[in-house]
Amino acid sequence: MAEGINILGIETSCDETAAAVVRDGCQVLSSVVASSAQLHAKYGGVVPEIASRAHIENIYPVITEALEVAGVGKEQVHAIAVANRPGLTIALMVGVTAAKTLAFAWERPLVAVNHLHAHLQSALLEQDDIELPAVALVVSGGHTCLYEARSALELRLLGRTLDDAAGEAFDKVASILRLPYPGGPSIEQAAKEGNPNAIPFPRTMLGPDSLDFSFSGIKTAVLYYCRGQDMKGQDMVATMDRSQIADIAASFQAAVVEVLVEKTCRAAELVGARTVLLGGGVAANSYLRSEMARMCQQSNPPRTLVVAQKRYCTDNAVMVASLGYHLFKAGMWADLDLEVSANG
Ligand code: KG4
Ligand code: ZN
Predict the structure, then answer these.
(1) Of 58, 95, 99, 236, which residue has the fewest beta carbons closer than 10 angstroms?
(2) Closest CA to 334 of 149, 152, 99
(3) Cα–ligand 2 centroid distance for 255 (angstroms)
């Protein structure tokens, strides 16, 4: 057997079918991602049944490719890690069924991974010697969660969204603005040409001490801005020019980022965090990364921002295999009757 501990990671919580082989928790031997995003584009959001069907078609070729690219045979895989929560139940079931089958057939341990905790592990791939305690923000299409991190395996939930997730708000606003799906990258692109101060969209802080989030208000504010307060006016987006769309995108992005950064700052002060961890699809946003870095630098004493490489912000299996390695080493193995859960 090759040196090191090789973990095969499998991820199917949403619309990406992903498999990866990671050695010793940090050495990426392969990372394969097949996205069904284009199949959902005309619906403006992920359709669970379509995602699940795509996972069924993709799971075997994706796992096979991950093993081939890694140059690792089944006898060199020490454990199989799979995201089993939270996510779309019928999507998670495909990855979990595949992982259980391989664990049984290859007689290897099965490790269950929380998808949100795995997003934070992406940030720790290159830098795992962080100063603790840390606060950790996961911003994805389905979740917005703030944690206190005592270690990679010990996370305490401090706050979460009460309605839409941050990524969901990006996707919905992109749809209002008729920008291509998925919305996050489209809004970021459009915002580059816009003025972030053009429109004072609301910053929902939910009270001075709250660590929870709410993004449905800003989504509605954008809708009203584009269609009139009574929603009876014509959809003005069709007649807006590029710079007007850019101003809306930039103003929306600035408002969401301000809330994310402010709440993270509050949480960091509360727990005396020396480090801020940032992960999840929205963490690929350059404006969020730079504003979070600015907040960390301006804190007294300054905090260290540890953020995932952009390619590992959105869903992937490297983060699952990497966290799976730590759980494997800690003896936190799952049984073959492992179930999926929509909630964390
Ligand atoms: O973590 P992820 O891949 O999937 C979930 O676990 O949900 O996150 C996907 C979300 C989508 O809502 C997408 O629009 C958003 O991340 N996203 C972005 C960017 N890239 C992806 N949001 C803002 N800016 C980006 N550059
Ligand atoms: Zn995710």
Answers:
(1) 236
(2) 99
(3) 22
pLDDT above 80 for 232: no
Q: What does the pLDDT look like over 104-123, one tens digit per residue?
A: 999 999 999 999 999 999 99
Pairing of strands 79-85, 6-11: parallel
> Residue 2 pLDDT > 70, yes or no?
no
Residue 184 has pLDDT above 60, yes or no: yes
Comparing C-alpha atoms, which of 10, 189, 197, 18 is closest to residue 112?
10
Please indicate whether residue 185, judged by its CB atom, sits closer than 6 Å to ligand 1. yes
Q: Which of 46, 51, 62, 60 is nearest to 91 (CA)?
A: 51
**Which atom of ligand 1 lies closest to the CA of 87?**
6
Rounded-to-integer distance, Cα 291 and Cα 161, Å: 20
pLDDT of residue 272 exceeding 50: yes
Residue 127 in tokens: 């830098």
Ligand 1 in reach of 142 Cβ (< 6 A): yes
Instruction: Give yes or no for a contact between 95 and 323, defined as CB atoms under 8 angstroms apart.
Output: no
Q: Which residues contact 90 (CB under 8 A, 6 or more apart)?
A: 48, 49, 51, 52
State the Cα–Cα distance between residues 325 and 332, nearest whole angstrom.
10
Q: Which atom of ligand 1 is nearest to the CA of 119?
A: 1
Q: Specify the residue with its C-alpha closest to ligand 1, atom 23.
A: 184
- φ/ψ region of 272 (left if φ > 0, alpha if ψ in -120 to 50, else beta) reads left
Neighbours of 338 (CB within 10 A): 18
**For the segment 275-307, what is each residue's pLDDT rounded down to a tens digit?**
999 999 999 999 999 999 999 999 999 999 999
Residue ranges and CATH numbers for the domains of the chain are 6-120+313-329 (3.30.420.40), 130-308 (3.30.420.40)
Q: Whose CA is nearest to atom 13 of ligand 1?
A: 184
> How would you classify the pairing of strands 154-160 and 144-151?
antiparallel
